[in-house]
Amino acid sequence: MSEPASISSGIAERYAAAVFEIAQENNALSELESSLEGLSAAVADSAELRDLINSPLISRDEQGAAITAVAQKIGVQDVLVNVLGLMAQKRRLFVLPQLIEHLQAMLAEHKGEVTADVTSAKALTKTQSEKLAKTLAARVGKDVKINATVDASLVGGLVVKVGSKMIDTSIRSKLASLQNAMKEVG
């Protein structure tokens, strides 16, 4: 990991720990979870918001006012709104994506969940997703939350990542191994 990335991660971890602890003391973890979903979607969907949190040209006060207004409009929990304002004042808004990741991981761990990143050639149906979650839960021993993405280049099959383990049953990987085997023969 590069040094700037580890510094950013460390900053995000400290803010995440503080927010999580306050939300836990106030029995507001479910509100925090819904706030994070809204905030994460806003960051992913809005290039302007990403520019706001990363731009050194925008003053601290402007960043603080803008992020507070956006967070309140989304319906973000008050504790998180205050932390976002503080992060803007300290010029730390650039770690917002890592903050969201850390908080989501802390919430999942608190609930005894693990997230499985599943990539498929076409979108999974709700039934397929539920069946996969049950199968993985039996294997892992925890509740599994599916984070599904689509990659048409897989041709078929799935790539499943749970923690440090990866299962690749995609046709693309099978074709690649077949191609390597053919190269070894000739």
Radius of gyration: 20 Å
Biggest sheet details: 4 strands, mixed
CATH superfamily of the largest domain: N-terminal domain of the delta subunit of the F1F0-ATP synthase
Q: What is the 3D shape?
A: globular
Helix fraction by DSSP (H/I, runs of at least 4): 55-70%
CATH fold topology of the largest domain: Peroxidase, domain 1
Number of domains: 2
Order of helices and strands: HHHHHHEHEEEH
Low-confidence stretches: none
Can you name the CATH architecture of the largest domain? Answer: Orthogonal Bundle
What does this structure look like?
With 186 residues, the chain is an alpha+beta fold. Helix 7 (126-140) links the parallel strand 1 and strand 2 (143-150). It has helices at 3-25, 29-45, 47-54, 60-74, 78-89, 96-111, 126-140, 171-185, and strands spanning 113-120, 143-150, 158-162, 165-168. It is globular, with a radius of gyration of 20 Å. A four-stranded mixed β-sheet has the order 2-1-3-4. It has two domains: 3-109, N-terminal domain of the delta subunit of the F1F0-ATP synthase (Peroxidase, domain 1, Orthogonal Bundle); 114-185, no CATH class. It has eight helices and four strands; from the N terminus they run ααααααβαβββα. Helix 1 (3-25) packs across helix 6 (96-111) and helix 2 (29-45) runs antiparallel to helix 6. The model has no long low-confidence stretch (mean pLDDT 90).
